[in-house]
Amino acid sequence: MNKIILTLAFIIGSFTISLAQKVNDKVQINSNGSWYPGKILKVNLEVKTYFVTYDGWGDSRNEWVTADRLKDSQKEVTSSPLTKFKVEVEYGMIPEPATIIEVGENKYHIQFDKKAFGDKWVAEGAIKKL
Prior knowledge:
Layout: H1 2-19, E1 26-31, E2 34-44, E3 49-54, E4 63-66, E5 70-72, E6 86-91, E7 94-104, E8 107-112, E9 119-122, E10 127-129
Antiparallel strand pairs: 1-2, 1-5, 2-3, 2-9, 3-4, 6-7, 6-10, 7-8, 8-9
């Protein structure tokens, strides 16, 4: 009986470790309902948290996050009938017109109509259809 329990513990532990993100992995980071590209700088396996940096942002924005706020940036993004769909997304608390350019897993890559605002990944709840 003890051998079965030890074998199961080993299998489950191995599976969990194989799913863990690693230092320098490129990821998408959820911040307030929007997804941003970034990279893992440190991993704390004891409390299962990741110290991340956001691409294009200063070190003051680096933070510790849990695994539920990370998505693998290598996940395939699918095309959808929603691409090129006009929407409104808040930019600094002001709704701004944008276009969906890609659809990912529970997220949308949008391009603001005002090119200076750029593009970003957002959750479905952040989008208002026009």
